[in-house]
Amino acid sequence: MHAALAEAGDPAGRTATALIRGDDQQGAIERLEVYANAYFFRILECLTEDFGALRHCLGAELFHDLVTAYLLAHPPAHPSLRYAGAQLASFLQDSAAAAPFRRRCAFSPDLARLEWSLLAAFDAPDAPVVTREEIGSVPPDRWEGLRLEFQPALQCLTVAECVQPIRRAYDRGEPLPGGTAGTKRVSVCVWRREERVFHRILPPLEATTLERARAGARFGDLCVAIADACGGDAAPGHAAALLSSWQADGIMSRLILA
Length: 258
Fold this sequence. Notes:
By secondary structure, the chain is an alpha+beta fold. It folds into two domains: 1-105, no CATH class; 107-258, Alpha-Beta Complex (Outer Surface Protein A, domain 3). It contains 13 helices and five strands. β3 and β4 (196-202) form a beta hairpin. α4 (52-58) packs across α5 and α12 (219-230) packs across α13 (235-249). The longest helix is centred in the N-terminal third of the chain and has 23 residues, at 28-50. The chain is elongated and about 80 Å long.
């Protein structure tokens, strides 16, 4: 607090003492420090809840230091602390001040991205879920032009291979697996069904097919791309399996018939 006052050009704290009343036990500056520290620890508590696996990987002390460095670079700008961690992943990725945390946990930017996406999925708007009956009612001659619309909560991101298993173990209360960022990266999808948020690694073919479908590709074009990847004979089975999996996961919200 004294350093902040000095930086503001009021090292004696005259402005604060004019506005805040002290007493026999604490002066004005000491009282102000209580509130300043309480605010920091409230943010720390929120970010501990939002980035639980990251805190576990870094350790409590280093996570405390991370939050301190992060808040110096990105003080909260929104009235709700829900958004306090919005820039944490980019801070870990790009800031020179985050180098000590990257050295301790090379995959920390990706883990922060995944954990933030879980929050975003939970807060996303509700939408209908496509049922098996709706899929079964599509006329055969309409399948080629069919387009799929997906849940607002659905997110796809590319992260270090170790990140999703770490968060999965954290969700289950299991020991977190050891891991390093390495060079291999995988696609992970995050979504919400009812009040639960899910995440899983996508096989490469599913990742590229889902990306095309989300971009608005027709089902017929998706099948052609699948055939190019795995052969014409296997394409129908792969396409049907993906559609069934997406329906079971509840990530599709609407079938759009051409």
